[in-house]
């Protein structure tokens, strides 16, 4: 018999990332990604400096850490013609005034994977972008 993943049903909530998330955010990034991010990156994320971000918490965690991040997305909005990213996309950036949403990091801790959280985070960042730029 497969052991249940959670002793209580997770209640997944999405919220903006705040300065109080700094330590957890750094910790999860260090666990999930092979590259090290500069402290300035985390500072910019938690303070919303040029970076759009969303966090996820499980407000029904049995250990009481109901406001601790278990996932996140960080993204930057860039003007297409000022970015080298468009070269990868293969269209003429010099003629484009379009803006793009560039996902910097997207992560969900192991225990909460395959519940659709990553997909929602991805879609949330796109929706956020469209709300202000479309
Ligand atoms: C990628 C990640 C955010 C997905 O989170 P999640 O909450 O499990 O995502 P969802 O439940 O919405 O979707 C799971 C699907 O994504 C797929 N998936 C997971 N990691 C993937 C990857 N690196 N590349 C492509 N697909 C991936 C799974 O196979 C699954 O596919 P299925 O629905 O067809 O079975 C999570 O696996 C993660 O944090 N990975 C480590 C960090 C990382 O690689 N981030 C992406 C680059 S920044």
From TrEMBL:
EC number(s) reported in the record: 2.3.1.48
Gene3D superfamilies per record: 3.40.630.30
Stretch forming the signal peptide: none
SUPFAM superfamilies named in the record: Acyl-CoA N-acyltransferases (Nat)
GO molecular function: protein N-terminal-methionine acetyltransferase activity
Keyword field: Acyltransferase, Chromatin regulator, Transferase
Domain of life from the UniProt record: Eukaryota
Protein name: histone acetyltransferase
Gene: MCC1
């Amino acid at each position: 018999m497969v052991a249940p993943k959670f002793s209580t049903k997770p209640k997944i909530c999405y919220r903006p990332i705040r300065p109080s998330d700094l330590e957890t955010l750094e910790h999860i990034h260090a666990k999930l990604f092979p590259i090290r991010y500069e402290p300035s990156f985390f500072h910019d994320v938690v303070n919303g400096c040029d970076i759009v971000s969303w966090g996820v918490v499980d407000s029904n965690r049995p250990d009481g850490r109901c406001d601790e991040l278990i996932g996140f997305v960080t993204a930057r909005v860039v003007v297409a013609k000022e970015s080298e990213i468009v070269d990868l996309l293969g269209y003429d950036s010099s003629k484009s005034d379009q803006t793009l949403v560039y996902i910097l990091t997207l992560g969900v801790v192991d225990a909460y994977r395959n519940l659709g959280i990553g997909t929602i985070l991805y879609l949330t960042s796109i929706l956020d972008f469209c709300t202000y730029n479309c």
